Amino acid sequence: xxxLTQPRSxxxxxxxxxxxxxxxxxxxxxxYNYISWYQQHPGKAPKLMIYDVSKRPSGVPDRFxxxxxxxTASLTISGLQAEDDADYYCCSYAGGPWVFGTGTKVTVL
Amino acid sequence: QVQLQESGPGxxxxxxxxxxxxxxxxxxxxxxxxxxxxxxxxxKGLEWIGEIxxxxxxxxxxxxxxxxxxxxxxxxxxxxxxxSYVTAADTAVYYCAMRxxxxxxxxxxxxxxxxxxVSS
Lengths: 109, 120
What we know:
The structure holds two protein chains of two kinds. By secondary structure, chain A is mainly beta. Chain A has strands at residues 9-12, 18-23, 35-40, 47-50, 64-69, 72-77, 86-93, 98-100, 104-108. Chain A is built from no helices and nine strands. In chain A, the strands form two sheets. In chain A, strands 1, 3, 4, 7, 8 and 9 form a six-stranded mixed β-sheet that branches. Chain A has a three-stranded antiparallel β-sheet with strand order 2-6-5, with no helix packed on it. The model of chain A has no long low-confidence stretch (mean pLDDT 97). By secondary structure, chain B is mainly β. In chain B, 0% of the residues lie in helices and 51% in strands. In chain B, a hairpin with a 4-residue loop joins strand 7 (68-73) and strand 8. The radius of gyration of chain B is 14 Å and the shape is globular. The model of chain B has no long low-confidence stretch (mean pLDDT 97). The chains are: A mainly beta, B mainly beta.
C-alpha cells in the first residue's frame, strides 16, 4: 500500500485557479468513489474540504471542487484567496485500509 | 458538536510502547461510525494507522499491523492506540478522527493532535 502521488507544490496569484492531482492505482482511487481532500495550515489539524470525490461539506466555499477520472482524482481551487495558502492531502479507500496522498503545498503568490 | 481530544505521554523510549487515548464528546462512540488514528512525522505527510468501529471491528495499516492495537472503552467514550516496539521513525503528531459511514466517507472532525517523540 503506497501513498497516493501528489505534486509537491503548486502556486497561483489571487483570483487564479489551481488544480492538484492525486494519482493512485486500480486498487484504490480507480476502484472507489471514496476520495476526500483535507486542508492543513501549519501547526493545525487537517480540515475536510471535499468528500466522496466531489461533495462539499457545509461551510466550505464553493470555489473548492473535486473530480475523478480513472486512477486520478483532482482538487480545483477557483478564485484563489490568501487563506487558501496551505497543504492539501487527498485520501482514498483501498478496500480495507485508507491511504493518504503525499501532500501538496499551495502557495498564493 | 463533536469534539475529539488526544492524550498520552509525549516521550516514549525506543523499543517501548506508545499509548494514546482519544476522548470523544458530543456523540457516543457506540453510534455507527469508525474511530481512526492518523499520524504525521515532522515535516512529512499524513499516514493512516487504523480504526475501530462501533462493533469493535478493527482495520489496520498493513505496514503497521504487527505493532498496532486499537481498542475502545464505551463506558468512558474513549478509544485508544497502542504501538509497540517504537523507533525514532514513529516520532510524529498523532491525530484521532471520526470517520463517517453514512452521509459520506470522510474523516471529520479531527482532534488537535499530540506530538509523541521517541527518544532515550
